[in-house]
Design a protein that fits this description.
CATH architecture of the largest domain: 3-Layer(aba) Sandwich
Number of helices: 10
Helix content: 25-40%
CATH class of the largest domain: Alpha Beta
Number of domains: 2
Distance between the termini: 18 Å
Shape: globular
Radius of gyration: 22 Å
CATH topology of the largest domain: Rossmann fold
Number of strands: 15
Order of helices and strands: EEEHHEEEEEHHHEHHHEEHEHEEE
Structural class: alpha/beta
CATH superfamily of the largest domain: P-loop containing nucleotide triphosphate hydrolases
Length: 379
């Protein structure tokens, strides 16, 4: 998968930007704060969700031109189903609940949900903010786990969205009080159906990534992975249909508890992703900072290999300041794998010398105060 053209309007520090690309790796270098990560963030909006920064959609709009500005990102791509044009941006007006929403167009046609983007491309990213993934809150790890699975299970994004939609509606009814029990039961049935599908896909996806890492040779560590939660544990013990019924009953029993808590207190929305350094038999959270970074890269590379095997084309990869913290041996191994994968990878850094291993293979751009200029373009 590759971006051949990228256009931005009123996106972060870019009033206008138009890049034409040859489909190969892209290296963006420049000082901190120049706008390198902003370009990666724009590319991350070619997938479902709130982008690699998880920012409020209105915060992405260029800040120096008023509150009514609506950002836009457009890209022409070579996707897994052929050429495709994708456009997305901040929509006028909110959704039914008044929340911000973004509009998505595929080949000029509006689509009802950004989840439809997974049919055309997979986007994988690593950012410096993810370096503490193994030691910070479980919600961050859970989102990372789901993004891993998006590329391995084409229906996972829709299942997650359907589960969360039913859960939000149930929370609202419990909060307001006096809800029809039959209505609550219907929502709990939806949560059980979609929630079990979500948990099962997580278990399967992590098992496949772990198996792929175990077979891979190289300088990056191997990891053991597990989705941990009540529903995941039940799936080890009983068939999926039995787990659905058990979860449905549990949700019904906990209506009073959940009403008082203001949220559903059981379900796959509370699950965690556990990671161990396989060779050391040590939880990732107890590993050194360097080992945690290497584990994160290894998991991401394994995920990209599986996506390539499933789709027949490598995912779009966004690697923000990843090279700066690797020694020469691992940096060389990373570049070799990225180039052998055949997909497009975007890399950022402040020191162009760190990307010498990509000379002759990548397009280099310098970024300074929102101006992007080609340094050297290789055919």
């Amino acid at each position: 998968m590759a971006v051949l053209s990228l256009k931005l309007r009123d996106f972060r520090n870019y009033p206008e930007l138009h890049l034409r690309l040859n489909g190969g790796p892209v290296v963006l270098t420049g000082p901190n704060g120049a706008g390198k990560t902003n370009i990666l963030e724009a590319l991350s909006f070619l997938s479902p969700g709130r982008g690699l920064r998880r920012a409020r959609l209105s915060d992405v709009s260029r800040s120096d031109c008023g509150s009514n500005v609506k950002w836009v990102a457009q890209a022409d791509l070579a996707s897994c189903v052929g050429p495709v044009a994708i456009g997305t941006g901040l929509a006028d007006g909110g959704d039914d609940e008044g929340a911000e929403r973004r509009v998505v167009r595929i080949n000029g046609e509006a689509v009802s949900s950004a989840n439809g983007l997974v049919e055309y491309l997979d986007v994988v990213w690593l950012t410096p903010q993810m370096d503490r993934l193994f030691v910070e809150g479980l919600s961050t790890r859970r989102r990372f786990m789901d993004r891993l699975v998006y590329g391995l299970d084409g229906g996972h994004a829709r299942q997650v969205a359907a589960y969360e939609k039913a859960m939000r509606e149930r929370n609202r009814l419990l909060k307001n009080g006096g809800a029809d029990p039959a209505w609550l039961a219907a929502l709990e049935s939806q949560m059980a159906e979609h929630g079990v599908a979500v948990a099962a896909a997580r278990r399967d996806g992590l098992a496949r990534i772990e198996a792929g890492m175990a077979l891979a040779a190289g300088v990056f560590p191997k990891a053991r992975l597990a989705a941990q939660g009540t529903v995941e544990a039940w799936l080890v013990e009983m068939p999926a249909l039995a787990v659905e019924e058990r979860l449905r009953k549990l949700l019904a029993e906990r209506r009073g508890i959940d009403r008082d808590a203001g949220a559903a207190t059981e379900g796959p929305h509370r699950s965690d992703m556990a990671v161990w350094h396989a060779d050391k038999d040590q939880p990732a959270a107890q590993c050194s900072t360097g080992e945690q970074k290497a584990l994160l890269i290894a998991i991401t590379l394994a995920n990209a290999r599986l996506i390539r095997a499933r789709r027949g084309i490598a995912p779009l990869m966004l690697l923000d300041e990843v090279s700066a913290h690797l020694d020469v041996r691992r940096r060389t191994a990373l570049y070799e794998e990225l180039l052998s994968g055949g997909g497009q990878v975007w890399l950022t850094g402040t020191d162009e010398d760190l990307f010498a291993g990509l000379t002759g293979h990548a397009e280099f751009f310098t970024v300074s105060d929102g101006v992007v200029a080609p340094r050297t373009v290789f055919s």
